[in-house]
Specification:
44% of the residues lie in helices and 15% in strands. By secondary structure, the protein is of the alpha/beta class. Strands 3-2-1-4-5-6-7 form a seven-stranded parallel β-sheet, with helices on both faces. Helix 6 links the parallel strand 5 and strand 6. Helix 1 packs across helix 7, helix 3 runs parallel beside helix 4 and helix 4 packs parallel to helix 6. The longest helix is centred in the middle third of the chain and has 23 residues.
């Protein structure tokens, strides 16, 4: 099935923005969701200049009812072939901050976990009913083996992975593909201020190309770089004390998110 109608959340920045530009070709209909109006408008105009038809939706994925209404309206107008749940934030610990602020933890979970659920919820029954479609969630290698520098971020990504894995077999019976995207370090505004080693980091355009290639092949897991992915999988098999020592490096600084949970 050739993808013609695509939804991308988190499209105003980072990987979401790069994916929007990667899919922006003539004959493609892009539905872009973001919170920053100016950045969203900029990427939408770039996509239109490349020949794509673009619909913009300034929305917060934490707003369960609002995002559901927007997605259902778009899907009823032109059934979505592919939906990429890419909105996310990061937070963590650092010097003098060995424990995450509880409010920051809840903000990360609200965006990175519940935001994904809010994106998928209105589409699962619609795609199952027409027996076609593709759902992709942006996870992380940190969702495979938790990072001591970002416990809440790792927890949210691990939960997203598990939820997608649980959905995948039964939705496949109904013609719907579910893919987990698990990138390593990507050079984006999301991690610009993080002070930590970033082995095998790739730029956003390269990340988007790898993700699109994997999704075009309808792979259940799109993970990169492969050596780092294999290393994280290996860490899950080692005794916990060894994995902890490998990952818990001094001097790592992950800024605390300024976001706070909003009861929308």
């Amino acid at each position: 099935m050739n993808v013609r109608s695509i939804l991308i959340t988190g499209a105003s920045s980072g990987i979401g923005r790069a994916l929007a530009l990667a899919y922006a070709v003539r004959g493609m209909r892009l539905h872009l969701v973001g919170r920053d109006e100016m950045r969203l408008r900029d990427v939408a105009e770039r996509c239109r200049s490349a020949g794509a038809e673009v619909l913009e939706g300034r929305a917060d994925v934490r707003d369960r009812a609002g995002i559901a209404d927007l997605i259902r309206a778009w899907d009823e107008e032109a059934p979505l072939d592919l939906a990429i749940a890419g909105a996310g934030i990061t937070s963590g610990v650092g010097e003098g901050r060995d424990v995450e602020d509880p409010e920051a933890v809840r903000a990360v979970l609200a965006v990175n976990l519940y935001g994904v659920l809010n994106t998928l919820d209105p589409l699962v029954p619609a795609m199952v009913a027409r027996r076609r479609g593709h759902l992709a969630v942006i996870g992380s290698l940190g969702g495979i083996r938790a990072l001591p520098s970002s416990p809440a971020y790792s927890a949210a990504k691990a939960a997203v992975h598990a939820y997608a894995e649980g959905l995948r077999p039964r939705l496949r019976r109904n013609g719907v593909t579910v893919s987990i995207v698990a990138p390593g370090f990507v050079e984006t505004p999301l991690n610009r201020d993080i002070r930590a080693p970033r082995p095998m980091q790739v730029g956003p355009d390269r990340a988007a190309a790898l993700i699109r290639r994997g999704l075009d092949r309808r792979k259940p897991v799109v993970a990169f770089p492969l050596p780092l992915y294999a290393g994280m999988k290996l860490l899950t098999l080692l005794p916990a004390v060894i994995g902890d020592r490998i990952l818990d490096r001094p001097g790592i600084e992950v800024p605390e998110t300024r976001e706070r949970e909003e009861r929308l």
